[in-house]
Write the C-alpha cells for this entry.
Amino acid sequence: MLEITDATFDGTTENIDGKKYMRCTFTNCVLVFSGTAPVALVDCVFKASRWEFAGAAATTLSFLRALYHGVGEGGQKLVEGTFESIRRPPSAE
C-alpha cells in the first residue's frame, strides 16, 4: 500500500484505492473509491470535498440498493444489518 503522509491536496481528483493517507488535508477535492484495493485514512481533514464511488464500489452500492428495494423485508433487513455492522467499531484483536 502506498503511504502518503502530511500532504495537502487542493482541487484535485484523488483515486484513493491502494493508498494510506496519514495526516493529509483535502480541500475542494473529489475522492474516488473504486473498490480495487484497501484504503486507509488516518487523521485526515476534509474541507469542501466530495466522495465518488466507481467500478466495483459503485456496483456494490447498486446491488445493495436493489436488495433493499427489490427483495422486500428480507432485503431491507440484510442491508440494515450490513450498515449496523459497519457502525460498530473494529474489535481489538
The beta strands are 2-5, 8-10, 13-15, 19-22, 25-27, 30-33, 40-42, 45-47, 50-53. The chain has a mean pLDDT of 95. The longest strand covers residues 2-5.
